[in-house]
Amino acid sequence: MRVGVIGLGIMGAPMARNLLRAGHEVVVHGRRRARVDPLVALGARAADTPAAVAAATESVVTCLPDGPDVELVVTGPDGVLAGATRGLVVIDTSTIAPDTARTLAARSAEVGVGFLDAPVSGGEQGAIAGTLSIMAGGEPDVFARAQSVFAAIGRTVTHMGPAGQGQMTKLVNQVIGVTTLAAVAEGLTLAAHAGLDPEAVLAAVGSGAATSWQLQNLGPRIQRGDWAPGFMVRLQQKDLRLAFAAAARVGVALPATAVVHQLLASVEARGGGALGTQAIAQALEELAGSGPQP
Amino acid sequence: MRVGVIGLGIMGAPMARNLLRAGHEVVVHGRRRARVDPLVALGARAADTPAAVAAATESVVTCLPDGPDVELVVTGPDGVLAGATRGLVVIDTSTIAPDTARTLAARSAEVGVGFLDAPVSGGEQGAIAGTLSIMAGGEPDVFARAQSVFAAIGRTVTHMGPAGQGQMTKLVNQVIGVTTLAAVAEGLTLAAHAGLDPEAVLAAVGSGAATSWQLQNLGPRIQRGDWAPGFMVRLQQKDLRLAFAAAARVGVALPATAVVHQLLASVEARGGGALGTQAIAQALEELAGSGPQP
Predict the structure, then answer these.
(1) Confidence band (pLDDT; 50, 70, 90) for B122?
(2) Do B30 and B154 share a domain, yes or no?
(3) Which domain holds residue B184?
(4) Residue A199 and residue A221 share a domain
């Protein structure tokens, strides 16, 4: 299949590589030449605009930082819809507001284009390995037509309902993930200041009812002060803002997650926006006394 | 070995059964006849006081609700130390303050008795299956002498350091576990009010970086409104009070866990102290509007 990829960052570039590896004809567009060229070297074709990508392909994957970026790429003057022919499928893997996804799906439908909100979980590692978890919202027939693309980039693909429900699921995922991380960070900060052996703590706590992906994967990083992303604080904060807005729309309060958001705001305020989310432990350390350090 | 068990509740009774099954001679003491008799029927001997249990055994396992209970059973007039001979090992599997455990270890050492703080994780299921995770604090030689008892009741046994550090590890475990549960409850409340399919949410979120024991085990209970314990809200609250006190002693703030404690306080205030901790979702529901219900 001829597949476009627009947005060639940490997540988009490995998706494009996996689509090439699966035998698709891939057309890419990105604002930075340094990100386009390596994919061209692997066999992709470069296009100058999103419209040109759409004109040359049957499916277009977008992977962009935020809602306004996706709106511009899809509905802008040189956007996907400007170049699309009827029957094109747009698969937006960005994390954006459910309402924005619903609007883009409606705009796409007006010109005979299928649109799926299909945000992903699994991070850079999952994107590279092609093992992302994909949460999709949109029409069932459009979802069915996206299967060969999904198969190349992800492992678990769940159809969550109509347009916007993929994004809503991703926001649920982000709420649960980051607050689980805060649980780990508070516990490990207590453990460190109490003088407990780091490895013994992970062994004891990691074998029972308190274990989690966050504990297993980010716990050791917190213990050794490794703040490299992973998933950046400022992107997590963007996702939480979307989550609070979506929660307010359906009438739900998220009090523990609100505290987590504020702790991460402190990390950002101290210049840590590009650190991994596990840097939430830095905020707890700022609040703590001078006992043993983590 | 001759092993005593004092405290025959949800956790203590299955520990006594597993000690019998492992071939130990078991002497039990509990305040309620209805809990003693079934163990006698399985081959245990009943003793009238903790002192009498201690006089008849080489190791004594205590499994009691809180610190004052353990202090009374160990150091009271008819307590374990009143009946103990030198060389007895006391294994306290209750969750109590690290400071109390340190005091009891010192008092025991004065009369030649070894004392381990050995709180457990894994709940009633783990106690029944003999697969508890045990976090032990105390002298290495006493820890070594407790191995045959640990082998009968648990699977993962971690020596966390000197007296009190087993309890400290358990408090770390409780902080991480309950705040992870709050993460799950907030996410699933958002999902329910947004109209997402419960099973699809668990499939999508449970396969990625937001997964946890709490999500896998208590997520489905939250979704179907099953509030049976599991682990009771009022015991979790007791453990969190111990955790906040211990955290204050070492100079650590636990802001997200504090919010979780208050949400559970609301569940208790509304009569839910004997519900399972997953009833934290009830507090979130009280805060929410009238969208789709979980």
Answers:
(1) confident
(2) yes
(3) 168-287
(4) yes
- ipTM entry: 0.94
Q: Which of A93, A97, A109 is nearest to A141 (CA)?
A: A109
Q: Verify whether the Cβ–Cβ distance B161 to A215 is below 8 Å.
A: no
Asked, for residue A129, whether it belongs to a domain, the answer is yes
Q: What is the DSSP letter of B232?
A: B
Tell me the nearest-neighbour CA distance from B27 into chain A, angstroms.
29
Taking CB atoms and an 8 Å limit, are A205 and B159 in contact across chains? no
The Cα A292–Cα A190 span in angstroms is: 10
* Residue A280 maps to a domain: yes
Give the number of domains in chain A.
2
Best probe of the B interface among A95, A170, A184, A186, by most B CBs < 10 A, is A186
Chain B residues touching A161 at Cβ < 8 A: 195-197, 200
Contact A263 B243 (CB under 8 A): no
DSSP reduced 3-state for A206: coil
Q: How many CB pairs under 8 A join A and B?
A: 298
pTM of this structure: 0.94
pLDDT higher than 80, residue B292: no
**SS3 for A29?**
strand
Q: Is the peptide bond before B112 cis (omega within 30 degrees of 0)?
A: no
A146 and A94: one domain?
yes
